[in-house]
Amino acid sequence: MSENKQKLPLIESLRLNGRAFAFLFRQVPMVFLSNIAQSVFSALTPYVGIYLSARLIDELAGERNPEKLVMWVLWIIGTALVFGISRAMIQRWKDTRNVAWWFHEIMIYARKMLHMDFCDMDNSETFKLYHQIMQNTRWTGWGLERIRVLFRQTLDAVLNILGAAALSVTLFTQLVPESAGEYTVMNHPLFIITMISVMMISVILSPMCAKKADSYAPKIAECMRSGNRTHGFFSELSSEQERAADIRIYNQEAICEHYFKTTNEVLRSGKLLRMVRGKLGLIRALGTLISTLFTGVVYLFVCAKAWAGAFGVGAVTQYIGAMVALSGGITSLVSVLGAIQNNAYFLRENFKFLDIPNNMYQGSLTTEKRSDIEYEVEFRNVSFKYPGSEQYSLRNVSMKFKIGKRLAIVGQNGSGKTTFIKLLCRLYDPTEGQILLNGIDIRKYKYDDYMNIFAVVFQDFQLLAFTLGENVAAGQEYDRAKAERCLRDAGFGERLDSLPKGLDTHLYRYFMEDGVEVSGGEAQKIAIARALYKDAPFIILDEPTAALDPIAEAEVYGKFDAITNGKTAIYISHRLSSCKFCDEIAVFHEGAVVQHGTHAELVADEKGKYHELWHAQAQYYVANETEAVPDI
Ligand code: ADP
Fold first, then answer.
1. Rounded to an integer, what distance in angstroms lies between the CA atom of residue 184 and that of residue 386?
2. What is the rounded CA–CA span in Å between residue 49 and residue 242?
């Protein structure tokens, strides 16, 4: 049974909504305060109107004193004016605050994603949860998103009830005069209690029907998520320019259409359609019927009491207005309670995501800045499984990095090279074994300090849609001369000269109309420049030249000495010929280091994996296998 279908007790629902309210109030108090102000004014305004109109009608139907009539009219106009102006000003305050709400809400999830441990961020369960929340938010605004509305509705309902109750108490306490004969039955306490009970029951029953009609929402959330995902996928697929050529060349329209129909849970199961079409429509209609009956009973009761002489005609408008408002208030309160209960199912997912703890142990040691850059890292019998995976991605890896030397890591796809780098950079902690920095377990260092000793160009690096300089320096304040030097060292010099705004050029067009699109190769050069700018003792390049053309690649290799400049360099590449200039090569196979040595030593071992890989690649370059592979 999915979590959404398990019933939540009312207390738990209230607790979850209360927690969400407190959580949001701490972040955006003005949003709630402006809503409170607007609620109070909105609730007061009609009652002031109802009360003053009743006095005016009473005066008209009674003494007809012209001075009093003028006074009541002036009161009505004056209060309408004051309340109208105040409401407009409060509305403006509330609206501006509410606009900021959306940004705050997006940032709550974005910050959580940015700050959670990498291993949780990299987990498919986290992504599933995140997408479910986005889906709940965008689809019907359930979850945290709904709190502001629920808060406002609760407040409105409570104020309505209080105001209406205050104006209608005398309806029950004002007695019919004895002269009214059989009408005096309305004075009997039993009659009054029965009347109040009938009204209460109908007032409560009506919104309960509405709640029942809405209760399908949590039950179909999962089905809708799947439907929306399919919908999103297919709408993007049809509009993505990069795919357009493939789709046409391979006539993929038909297969896309087929998958759209068969994978779309909403279309396929018809669950949603059945639910909305079925009993739920009738339940909603029943709710409306009950509420109309209530209004009928109110009219009868109030008119009968006025007819019997309990109060004047003016009071009839007051009591009917107040009773209808009271019914509206109670209806809103009950339905808001229903919505609060439904919302709790969604909030449970919000908090499941927001409560993901940062479990990675944060040490306290600093990696003091050493001028000799003597940072020695050692893997000691390290094994690793990805969370939720049964398979080891690394097994018993032991390795010591020689300071200031270049190490190449080679191996087939899936042999564990990237995983090895992720552990080295502490994006994950080993399942077994230890990684040591200068003899101390890396977990004992401050996380940010430890991260500072690495500059990595990942294979799937990402640049940000900020300025070129900010991308290189990873910050807003930076050393422009150094950023420019790094870009030139990474081979981006010519392109930089062609950009009129130089380092201030925005990458991509997300934020700036005049942003530039960079090619894969150019982006890779910027990523290398970013690693150079960081000037860390370790530089790690994961397939750093994959997107470069042969000339640019040769250029980067030519500058490799300058790039690594006495640092400890780790270099992952499929092109073995380009690993030859490294001091040492480690060969990975099925998660283990199977060979370790210089190029000459490894290639000489004819039974070794390196020999196999080398010759598999060499045959594409040379006719005679015994010939050396040419350098590029
Ligand atoms: P390489 O970089 O040598 O191509 P990887 O380190 O990426 O290899 O992968 C090593 C193994 O770990 C592969 O079997 C791969 O399927 C698995 N793997 C990689 N990333 C994950 C992940 N996030 N979750 C589960 N398994 C993974």
1. 81
2. 62
Residue with tokens 């407040």: 155
Place of tokens 């499929």: 574
421 lines ligand 1 (CB under 6 A): no
Give which of 585, 586, 538, 546 is closest to 565, Cα–Cα.
Answer: 538
> What are the φ/ψ torsions at residue 589 (nearest 5 degrees)?
-150, 125
420's enclosing H/E stretch is helix 417-424
Ordered domains of the chain (ranges, CATH): 3-226+271-354 (1.20.1560), 373-453+537-574+582-592 (3.40.50.300), 461-535 (3.40.50.300)
pLDDT at 508: 81
pLDDT in tens, 614-625: 888 766 544 444
**Long-range contacts made by residues 604-611, C-beta under 8 angstroms, separation at least 24?**
609/411, 610/410, 610/576, 610/585
Say which residue the tokens 């930076």 belong to.
Answer: 478
By most ligand atoms within 8 Å of CB, the mutation choice from 120, 125, 393 for ligand 1 is 393
DSSP per residue over 443-495, as a string? GGB-HHHHHTTEEEE-TT----SSBHHHHHHTSSS--HHHHHHHHHHTT-HHH
Distance of CA 91 to the CA centre of its chain: 28
- Would strands 377-385 and 454-457 be described as parallel, antiparallel, or unpaired? unpaired
Going by CA atoms, what residue is nearest to atom 26 of ligand 1? 386
Q: Specify the higher pLDDT residue, 554 or 129.
A: 129
**486, 532 in Cβ contact below 8 A?**
yes
Within 215-278, residue ranges assigned H as helices are 216-239, 241-249, 253-263, 265-269, 271-277
| Runs of H (alpha helix) within 117-188 | 118-121, 124-140, 144-173
Instruction: For residue 623, count CB atoms less than 10 angstroms from its CB and return exposed for 0-12, middle for 13-18, buried for 19 or more.
Output: exposed
Task: Compute the Cα dihedral for 238, 240, 241, 246 and give only its sign.
Answer: negative
Instruction: Indicate the range of 30-44, 280-294, 340-354 predicted with least confidence.
Output: 280-294
Q: Rounded distance, CA 303 to CA 194, Å?
A: 17
> Cα of 393 to ligand 1 centre, how many Å?
6
Ligand 1 centre to CA of 439 (Å) is: 28
Q: What is the percentage of the chain residues whose pLDDT exceeds 90? A: 22
Q: Is 590 in the pocket of ligand 1 (CB under 6 A)?
A: no
Contact criterion met (CB below 8 Å) for 216 and 276: yes
Whole-number Å distance, alpha carbon 460 to ligand 1 midpoint, is: 14
Residue nearest to atom 8 of ligand 1 (CA): 414
User: DSSP string spanning 291-348?
Assistant: HHHHHHHHHHHHHHHHHTTSS-HHHHHHHHHHHHHHHHHHHHHHHHHHHHHHHHHHHH
Q: How far apart are CA 378 and CA 94, in angstroms?
A: 58
Grouping H, G, I as helix, E, B as strand and the rest as coil, residue 596 is: strand
State whether the beta carbon of 491 lies less than 6 angstroms from ligand 1. Answer: no
pLDDT of residue 563: 72
Question: Sign of the CA dihedral 225, 227, 232, 233?
Answer: positive
CB 23 within 8 A of CB 139: no
Looking at per-residue pLDDT, the higher value among 523 and 215 belongs to: 523
Whether 411 is in the pocket of ligand 1, judged by its Cβ within 6 Å, is: yes
Which two tokens mark 505? 């050029």
**Residues 68-114 pLDDT 10s:** 999 999 999 999 899 889 888 998 988 888 877 777 888 898 889 88
Backbone angles phi, psi at 328, to 5 degrees: -60, -40
